[in-house]
Amino acid sequence: MVKVLIVEDEHSQAEVLTMLLRLEGFDVAVAVNGHDALTQLDDVRPDLIVTDYMMPEMNGGEMARQIRARPLHGRIPIIMTSATDARQVEQHGAYYDAFLRKPYLWDDLFVIIKRLLPSSRQQ
Length: 123
Known about the structure:
Rossmann fold; five-stranded parallel β-sheet; alpha/beta; single chain
């Protein structure tokens, strides 16, 4: 089963995304900010990360940069989401694989997930 780590500080957003991904057959873990996600990586061992950009303590871009620097986790696909101006998020563009502007459609997210995950890892 494909494991997705959701990194989202807005509880309601994380809840909805968790429900939708589980309905599609994904195993889901949730982190409330970038620091929380970094501490969970070894235990969760996600196949994919879906993260918000604007979060307290550490934004999604800095979190993605730190993940890319880790030998064991540096190749995990990262989908960055944000309601903020895309230009602000683009400064970290080298550290994530796809960007979705909030609000986004579930279908758009699922298309990106299918593109980023090897077919052998998909349901």
